């Protein structure tokens, strides 16, 4: 595209973003120095103004005040707010998904899938509101009952990343609200408009069901805004999604004030392909996991550990499949790979590919930039790189579509390769051998371990998160709700005596 045509295209995208915000009921903010850009063209969608420290402080104060009454509302009644949010998400699914595409560059199917995740977790949280169970234990003392009860925790601060601009927020918020917490959300400065849309829908849901709209606060801006949430003692739980470097900064600061952290950090996910694997199934799973979202998922497949007997055939099939991937404008039909989020992501990818070649790697296919929309948009072809060994480069996470291929001879060494990184988010094995599958499930040190399915595409019913430098947090399903509540142990004496524990006699 010429410069003039690119500018016109960006203007059209900006107008569309404004129209979507209007349709979702959100007011377009006053213009400022902060530019909300679209990776589709690299152009500006809107000009915004970041919140000041005073504004962030006031938002936390409103959330803390709202908590005092929200915590006393029965959990099934609190669920009415989440139920109404789900209804609004269903009604506005297409518009919100398109806004995700404009801001994050996701293809339409993936953007719609992300909004569906929001709806699904709302349904999960609604059911959860009647299942915040505590345990009852037998007491060693006659006439006594021993039990545990769970109580709302307080203000939950949510810091989310650009690659899932709405889903991760909903995982935290839907569960936090039914648990009786209030929420202050700081979205990625790359995706402020989707955040504004979600905040508007939640506030509308609160009004519709007679709940206090102040239970949810939105603060926008860069690092300074996030630091305020991290350091404020009124924020009982800080849930942060981002890089390992970010987590290394956040965790000590929250710990220093004796707050709680829920961290979802980097992933360097591997899939093992065994000799018995169904290669057709494996190829489908690998391509989606490695190339989906242009390699910008925390669960993206980055390392392929193939048995020496199948590696050549597998790589040949993968290269053929990669050749059929259509890279382009995510708003267009048939596109499977959209743009990288920005120039920094593109530069990091090119540096990693150069380092791979310097360390003996061979680029099988991909890696080159595709000039589609203009100089400020970064489209690339997903790359496959065969590596002689798991080098330091391979142990790092490059947030771009690079798949490193390694080989192995026995299942024990394959599992060792899987574990030989600092990250521990997602992992997979493709095998028809039950013994190998069971050895892998027992041996993988990741929070997610799959058999005959890729590393990405987790369902909300299972707790999502990872070990080691991934942070150890768990969001979404299972008993992840416990992170958003505090536990109390209760002893009730309904006898006329006062026996002491451990058979102690005093006086």
From TrEMBL:
One of the record's GO molecular function terms: aldehyde dehydrogenase (NAD+) activity
Matching InterPro entries: Ald_DH/histidinol_DH (IPR016161), Ald_DH_C (IPR016163), Ald_DH_CS_GLU (IPR029510), Ald_DH_N (IPR016162), Aldehyde_DH_dom (IPR015590), ALDH7A1-like (IPR044638)
Catalytic residues (UniProt): 264
Bilayer-spanning residue ranges: none
Keywords: NAD, Oxidoreductase
Keyword set includes NAD: yes
A Pfam family recorded for this sequence: Aldedh
EC number: 1.2.1.3
Coiled-coil intervals, chain numbering: none
Residue ranges occupied by any Aldehyde dehydrogenase domain in the UniProt entry: 38-487
PANTHER family: ALPHA-AMINOADIPIC SEMIALDEHYDE DEHYDROGENASE
Subunit structure: Homotetramer.
Family statement: Belongs to the aldehyde dehydrogenase family.
Identification of the protein by name: aldehyde dehydrogenase (NAD(+))
């Amino acid at each position: 595209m010429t410069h003039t045509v690119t500018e016109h295209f960006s203007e059209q995208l900006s107008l569309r973003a404004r129209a979507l915000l209007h349709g979702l009921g959100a007011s377009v903010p006053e213009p400022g120095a902060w530019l909300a850009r679209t990776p589709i063209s690299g152009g500006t969608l809107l000009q915004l103004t970041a919140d000041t420290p005073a504004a962030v402080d006031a938002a936390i104060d409103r959330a803390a005040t709202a908590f005092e009454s929200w915590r006393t509302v029965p959990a099934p009644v609190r669920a009415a707010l989440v139920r109404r949010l789900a209804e609004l998400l269903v009604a506005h699914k297409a518009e919100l998904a398109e806004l995700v595409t404009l801001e994050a560059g996701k293809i339409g199917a993936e953007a719609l899938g992300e909004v569906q995740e929001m709806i699904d977790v709302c349904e999960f949280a609604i059911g959860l509101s009647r299942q915040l169970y505590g345990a009852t234990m037998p007491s060693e003392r006659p006439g006594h009952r021993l039990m545990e009860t769970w109580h709302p925790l307080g203000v939950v601060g949510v810091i989310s990343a650009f690659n899932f601009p709405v889903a991760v927020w909903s995982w935290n918020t839907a569960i936090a609200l039914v648990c009786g917490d209030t929420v202050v959300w700081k979205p990625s400065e790359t995706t402020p408009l989707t955040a504004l849309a979600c905040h508007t829908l939640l506030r509308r849901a609160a009004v519709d069901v007679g709940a206090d709209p102040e239970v949810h606060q939105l603060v926008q801006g860069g690092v300074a805004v996030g630091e305020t949430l991290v350091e404020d003692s009124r924020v009982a739980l800080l849930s942060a999604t981002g890089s390992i470097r970010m987590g290394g900064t956040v965790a000590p600061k929250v710990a220093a004030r004796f707050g709680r952290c829920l961290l979802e950090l980097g992933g360097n996910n591997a899939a093992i392909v065994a000799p018995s694997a169904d290669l057709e199934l494996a190829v489908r799973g690998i391509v989606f996991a490695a190339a989906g979202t242009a390699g910008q998922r925390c669960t993206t497949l980055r390392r392929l550990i193939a048995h020496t007997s199948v590696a050549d055939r597998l790589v040949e099939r993968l290269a053929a499949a990669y050749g059929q991937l259509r890279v382009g404008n995510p708003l267009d039909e048939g596109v499977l790979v959209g743009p990288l989020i920005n120039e920094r992501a593109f530069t990091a990818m090119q540096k990693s590919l150069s380092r791979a070649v310097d360390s003996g790697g061979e680029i099988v296919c991909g890696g080159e930039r595709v000039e589609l929309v203009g100089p400020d948009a970064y489209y690339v072809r997903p790359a496959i790189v065969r590596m002689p060994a798991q080098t330091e480069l391979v142990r790092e996470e490059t947030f771009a579509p690079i798949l490193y291929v390694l080989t192995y001879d026995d299942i024990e060494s394959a599992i060792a390769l899987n574990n030989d990184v600092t990250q521990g988010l997602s992992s997979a094995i493709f095998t028809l051998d039950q013994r190998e599958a069971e050895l892998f499930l027992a041996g993988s040190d990741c929070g997610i371990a799959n058999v005959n399915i890729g590393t990405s595409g987790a369902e909300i019913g299972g707790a999502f998160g990872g070990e080691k430098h991934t942070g150890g947090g768990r969001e979404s399903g299972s008993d992840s709700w416990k992170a958003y509540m505090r536990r109390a142990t209760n002893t009730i004496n309904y006898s006329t005596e006062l026996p002491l524990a451990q058979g102690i006699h005093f006086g």
